[in-house]
Write a structure and sequence with these properties.
Strand content: 15-25%
Structural class: alpha/beta
Low-confidence stretches: 381-386
Number of strands: 16
Shape: globular
Largest sheet: 10 strands, mixed
């Protein structure tokens, strides 16, 4: 392609907070962790904030702190990916930058949006405690998640986290809980795959990580170990040969017979997270023989656009990370403004099909609240209450019929948050003041009356239209005489033969 596939971060030496930092310090993961942004005073030395914006972020943090949440924690590296003016970002040609906020800022800095719609969403929506033994959480016959780290261990917090409740600084995963989880995995011989997660699996101590992997290596029926981490995205300098060698050796130290297959799961939501530093971390992981797969969350105001998704998926693949899932955002309390309608996600996925290679296309799925597991939302695998109409025409699809892996049917699965008309208008006014301009913040919610009865959806007549020519332009494909990319060499056979012969001379 014609562009540099790596997003270019700001030179940290031009940023006030780090103007005297040496390259040795900057590339030291421990320095990065010690110098994470945790206050608005630090943040305003990195990005442009008006006094009002500072006050509003501070107010948001205070409210979240009263709930036990330490919600601001950003590594210097990840903060350097934020544009200097996050409220007027520069995007790729074809993107609607006037309707965008900086995607790194929006993912990592709590704003008044996190306090909106308090009556929508549920804390702990996944209800993981109801399906757990110790640190092991199970919702499928053959695989479990093993929580080895609390969310407060993450190098950087994600504002859209599906475990937002676990930002509670008192949350702890202790050795006893981990041992109970390991016991259960060994006890249940159906389990052949485990996701080592948290929080972030790579943010635990080396000794804890080694212990966990060695214990897993002893379980004869366990075949696959997944390492869930966002470290390559937010702290790529922490991905070292030493760490990867420890994982390689520990995961199979006591294994007999077929070796355990170990791979990484990471979390890239936007192409601006795909930097040269990220690619370098990925290359180290791949050179050690590991596969890397990615779960992207579809996020309003971040990646809910055709070109953004396309660039994220294909750049990810170009550096060696396999797009695995595009996940519907959860109805977790405090983050419903991130939710994009299922309808919009399906339209974009439908229109990306064929324009990107199949291996570059993730599966679009919802992780059903309450432990229902993942349900595919692709047009071919997702039923609706309006079967006759094309998906491009269903302008108010608020409910859907879905089936879980174990045969349960949810007849009115509702993906969006809810608000009264007054709540919606108040939210728009609050965020327009905070952002400093209109037309950017537009939460996708179901408008209800005072009795909770559905009235309409806020995206009602604003479904995206993606025409063939527009797709070609957005993806930077060279057009032939038919205003379309070349898809059949026979269409220009004489021209190709002439060029080929010319090159042979």
């Amino acid at each position: 392609m014609k562009m540099n596939i790596y997003y270019q971060s700001r030179d940290y030496r031009t940023i006030q907070l780090w103007k005297n930092v040496t390259a040795e310090q900057w590339n030291d993961p421990q320095w990065q962790l010690r110098n994470r942004i945790t206050t608005v005073a630090q943040l305003k030395q990195v990005i442009q904030l008006t006094p009002f914006q500072q006050e509003e972020i501070e107010r948001t943090l205070q409210v979240m702190a009263s709930e036990g949440k330490e919600a601001l924690r950003i590594t210097p590296y990840y903060a350097s990916l934020m544009q200097e003016d996050p409220f007027h970002p520069k995007m790729l040609p074809g993107e609607k930058e006037r309707k965008r906020l900086d995607p790194i800022f929006w993912q990592s800095v709590p704003t008044p949006a996190n306090l909106l719609f308090p009556n929508t969403g549920k804390e702990g929506a996944m209800d993981e405690g109801s399906r757990s033994f110790g640190a092991a959480y199970q919702r499928y016959p053959n695989r479990v998640a093993l929580f080895v780290a609390e969310n407060t261990s993450c190098a950087s917090y994600c504002v859209h986290c599906q475990r937002a409740k676990s930002l509670d600084c008192t949350t702890e995963v202790n050795r006893e809980e981990i041992n109970k989880g390991l016991f259960y995995i060994n006890y249940n011989e159906n389990i052949d795959e485990v996701l080592v997660t948290g929080g972030d699996a790579l943010m635990v101590s080396r000794s804890r990580l080694q212990y966990i992997l060695e214990e897993l290596s002893k379980i004869p029926h366990l075949r696959v170990i997944r390492i869930a981490t966002r470290v390559p995205v937010v702290l790529p300098m922490a991905v070292t040969d030493e760490l990867l060698d420890l994982i390689n050796s520990s995961a199979n130290r006591y294994a007999t017979g077929c070796p355990k297959y170990v791979y990484f799961m990471t979390h890239v939501n936007h192409y601006q997270e795909i930097t040269a530093e990220f690619a370098s971390a990925v290359e180290k992981i791949r050179k050690k023989g590991f596969t890397i797969r990615n779960q992207t969350v579809l996020l309003n105001h971040v990646n809910d656009y055709y070109k953004t998704l396309a660039e994220t998926f294909r750049r990810m693949m170009w550096v060696g990370v396999h797009p695995y899932y595009l996940l519907q955002c959860h109805k977790e309390k405090g983050i419903v403004h991130f939710i994009t309608p299922v309808q919009v996600g399906k339209i974009y996925m439908k229109h990306l099909q064929g324009w990107l290679s199949g291996i570059t296309m993730p599966k679009y799925a919802a992780n059903i609240e309450g432990g229902g597991g993942k349900v595919l939302l692709m047009p071919s695998g997702h039923d609706t209450l309006n079967l006759e109409a094309s998906i491009d025409e269903k302008i108010s699809e608020s409910f859907a019929l879905v089936s879980t892996w174990d045969g349960k049917k949810i007849y009115r699965y509702e993906s969006l948050g809810r608000a009264t008309q007054d709540e919606f208008e108040d939210a728009m006014e609050i965020m327009n003041r905070f952002i400093g301009r209109k037309g950017v913040f537009f939460p996708k919610v179901i408008i209800v009356d005072e009795k909770g009865k559905h009235i309409e959806t806020t995206f009602r007549s604003k479904l995206p239209i993606v025409e063939q020519l527009k797709k070609s332009q957005l993806l930077d494909y060279t057009l032939n005489g038919k205003n379309a990319p070349l898809t059949n060499p026979q269409d220009i056979l004489e021209e190709l033969d002439a060029f080929y012969l010319q090159q042979k001379r």
